[in-house]
Design brief:
The structure holds 2 protein chains of 2 kinds. Chain A is mostly helical. Chain A is built from 4 helices and no strands. The chains are: A mainly alpha, B mainly beta. Chains A and B meet through helix 2 of A and helix 2 of B.
Chain lengths: 193, 191
């Protein structure tokens, strides 16, 4: 049963599945929170939402680091035989870009709060003080990282949208196992070993 | 005119050094107007991880009445205009003026009125009173020290700690401390 936690050559294990969905939900939530917090009229609510965004951002970054570690230490299930050659080449590229986005979007947010001249400390979930990245604070640096964080987030959203559309295509049009194997480890083509 | 009277007149009219031993609350009897000239009302709020947020109010006014025979019957009243807050960072100032903190558009004045003055030394007193901000009143205590007294001008150094949560200004806690440290130099001119 313990083997259900790890990946095999034909399916994802529970850890990979859990990390995938946790990060997916957090990422979508962070996008929504980020869009609302900079548009809301109440400065008080905006301040509080920004602190939540920072807290969830650090949680997201931590989970992404665990996920990358898990990915490097596990085998990858192969794509089903039915997947076309072009998609077989495109999928790893989009996945690599998605991993890059998962890493650089929260990191750029951390850089932004580190260089902000407002010098608001980062205290994830009011638990501990997260140190700033060693970057000099200035108005110019804040403007740069603010733009970088926003653009990287939009790129991440575009990649995630592409990824979701591809997943839905596998689920509803191709009807292969690609979507299902990210739902649970024991769906369908579990090998008898 | 007795020698003692002469000495008292000299004490009231002659320049006195800032050394506290040379000035006394009892000698400062009278009514004084606090003006922004030379006075300052500074504040600081500690933040987690070290450092803090500090600033000052640019506009305020007030009155100090010192009872010569019984310092305990003295009183002080100060009105601060929070719109004049300055921290050196415009975005922080705008945040402090907004409804997140002072809501200065709807609550343009912060008022302190003393209710009790207790002399604690030759030049020192503890001032208890009511602070009103954003429609909420709460008792507060400040410590005052008479720093100089000359030609109808008194200079007080006043310090005190205020819990901002009592006035609906607890935004940012616990990242920013609930305790606001006040450090004021109040120059009063007789009249």
């Amino acid at each position: 049963m313990a083997s259900l936690f790890r990946n095999t050559t034909t399916r994802y294990g529970w850890i990979a599945i859990l990390l995938h969905w946790l990060i997916a939900v957090l990422f979508i939530g962070q996008v929504a929170l980020g869009l609302v917090m900079v548009r809301i009229a109440s400065q008080r609510t905006a301040f509080e939402l920004i602190q939540w965004h920072k807290s969830f951002g650090f949680l997201l970054l931590g989970l992404v680091l665990v996920r990358i570690g898990w990915r490097l230490g596990n085998v990858r299930p192969a794509l089903p035989e039915t997947v076309a050659p072009l998609e077989r080449r495109a999928a790893p590229l989009v996945h690599a870009l998605l991993y890059a986005a998962q890493l650089v979007v929260p990191l750029s947010g951390w850089a932004l709060v580190s260089v902000s001249v407002l010098e608001v400390p980062s205290v994830p979930f009011d638990l501990f003080v997260m140190p700033n990245l060693p970057l000099g604070a200035s108005d110019a640096a804040e403007a740069f990282w603010s733009a970088a964080h926003e653009w990287l987030a939009w790129i991440g959203i575009a990649l995630a949208a592409l990824h979701i559309l591809a997943a839905l295509r596998h689920r509803f049009l191709l009807r292969d196992s690609v979507f299902q194997r990210m739902i649970a480890p024991s769906s369908g083509d579990e090998p008898r070993e | 005119m007795s020698v003692r009277m002469l000495a008292l007149l000299a004490a009231l009219s002659l320049p006195v050094s800032t050394a506290s031993a040379d000035v006394s609350l009892g000698d400062a009897a009278g009514r004084y107007s606090i003006g922004a000239g030379g006075s300052s009302i500074r504040f600081s709020i500690a933040k987690l991880g070290g450092g803090g947020l500090s600033g000052a109010f640019g506009r305020f006014s007030g009155t100090i009445r010192i009872d010569g025979t019984d310092v305990g019957r003295s009183s002080v009243e100060i009105t601060i205009f929070p719109d004049s807050v300055g921290t050196g960072q415009g975005r922080i100032d705008a945040f402090l003026r907004s409804d997140a903190v002072f809501d200065s558009a709807n609550a343009p004045q912060i008022v302190f009125r003393s209710t009790r003055v207790k002399r604690t030394g030759d030049t020192t007193a503890v001032i208890a009173g009511r602070l009103t901000a954003r429609g909420k009143s709460s008792p507060e205590v400040f410590t005052a020290r008479l720093d100089s007294l000359k030609r109808g001008t008194v200079a007080f150094h006043v310090t005190g700690k205020v819990l901002r949560s009592r006035y609906g200004m607890d935004v940012g806690t616990p990242i920013y401390s609930n305790v606001v440290d006040f450090d004021m130099t109040l120059i009063g001119r007789r009249g």
